[in-house]
Amino acid sequence: MCDGVSRRQFMQVGGLAMFAGMPTLSLAEVLRADGLRGSSSDKAVIHIFLGGGPPHQDMWEIKTEAPAELRGPFQEISTAVPGIRICEMFPQIARMADKFTFIRSVVGCDGRHCGFQCNTGRLHRERVSGSQWPAVGPAAEKLLGQRRPGVPPTVALAEKTKHLSWSDPGRAGFLGHAFEPFQAVGEGCANLTIREMNVDRFAARKRLLGDLAQRSTWADNDPDTLGTYQQQAYEILSSNRLADAFDLSLEPQAVRERYGTGKPFKFQYDGAPTVNEQLLIARRLVEVGVRVITLSYGRWDSHGDNEGLVRDHGPKLDQCVSALVEDLDERDMLDDVTVLVWGEFGRTPKINKGGGRDHWPRVSCALLAGGGMNAGQVIGSTTKDGGTANDRPVHVQEVIATVYHNLGITVGDPRFVIHDNLGRPNFLLPSDHQSPMRELVG
């Protein structure tokens, strides 16, 4: 049952809690007993979602031998790793190829625009008890807790898009609103500090609110604490750590110039702008204690003028991703921070009459760095036309399992299960894709 949980495992993780009157340990108690909380306190993930579906054959695997209608206009260039060649639009990443892994054979994608898939590893149609699966950030918060008081474990930087799936922040699903990511875009950051009120007065108001909470039912049914939301808000507002992380004026100008701005924002339409500065903010958020940061970069739905899109988005992405990885490396953070760059599917092998490539869920690509993974390699390949995985197909869920592994969460371990809104224990991923990629963590 529940993705292959055995009867023995089911009982170990408190699966009998649904039967009234039977005492059992909660998952939090199991984790505390095993000393797991805080064991991966420095581990973090920066997830860069390329909403719309990036063209895999115009990025990390140029098909130089294919006919023109398949090959496209781009040339390949050599990299710092002998034998690895990528698109000419990514010279900085090529220069640092020993820090990256290029996955050319991602499979298991859905055919729809869906950030949910990249945030959770689950297809859009997969539901549990009428609710969505939680994304990596909320699941990690549930299992590992906060990295640092006063700092939300998960922050979503995704600019709101007209097509909402492209700015999916990585929601908590059936874990509930208490585990929703902190969404900090636009003017919202202006409210992160206490204004015109000193901390002592604010603390007094907190005590008053706690007094009132004892006489109400909205404070987690616990008379000794504030409700989850009020407590988190107080911690955030009584500290400037989070607000300072968003203040790029505190960064040296040379660092800001290295990342760039991503302007002018072209090809935005109903998608996300190419905001390079969000990657710098992401690094700063990791430094203050955020565990998972998600952001949406650009609009990659190239049904027309695929060449123009790649020529605009490619160099901008090249600049900010290479800057991020270099920055993390120089600060001795790279082994602790996993950087994941991918979209929801690939693009058609054949270029259409409008010069674009259409949706192609059969195979896509991903770029990874950091996290203590084995870097400087290519994993998988596609057939001559770029249409299917030729060798070593990498399932979407293998990538997510690797991300969990890097955070210190072993998918498939009965200690790391989450309970849905009916109290049923569930592994984070199905039993056939619970292991991290052997090439990266072996």
N-to-C CA distance: 30 Å
Total of helices:
14
Structural class, please?
A: alpha/beta
Beta-strand fraction estimate: 15-25%
Shape: globular
Mean pLDDT: 84
Helix content: 25-40%
Gyration radius (Cα, Å) is 22 Å
Total strand segments: 19
Largest beta-sheet details: 9 strands, mixed
Q: Spans with pLDDT under 50 lasting ≥5 residues?
A: 1-40, 217-226
Word description of this protein:
With about 450 residues, the protein is an alpha/beta fold. It has a domain at about 1-35 and about 405-420 and about 430-440. It has helices spanning about 5-10, 25-35, 70, 90-95, 115-120, 135-145, 200-215, 230-235, 240-245, 255-260, 275-290, 305-330, 395-405, 440; strands at about 45-50, 75-80, 85, 100-105, 125-130, 130, 155, 180-185, 290-295, 335-340, 345, 360, 365-370, 375-380, 380, 390, 395, 415-420, 425. Strands 1, 4, 7, 8, 9, 10, 13, 14 and 17 form a 9-stranded mixed beta sheet that branches. The protein has a two-stranded antiparallel ribbon with strand order 2-3. Strands 5-6 form a two-stranded antiparallel sheet. About 45% of the residues are buried. The model is unreliable at about 1-40 and about 215-225 (pLDDT under 50).
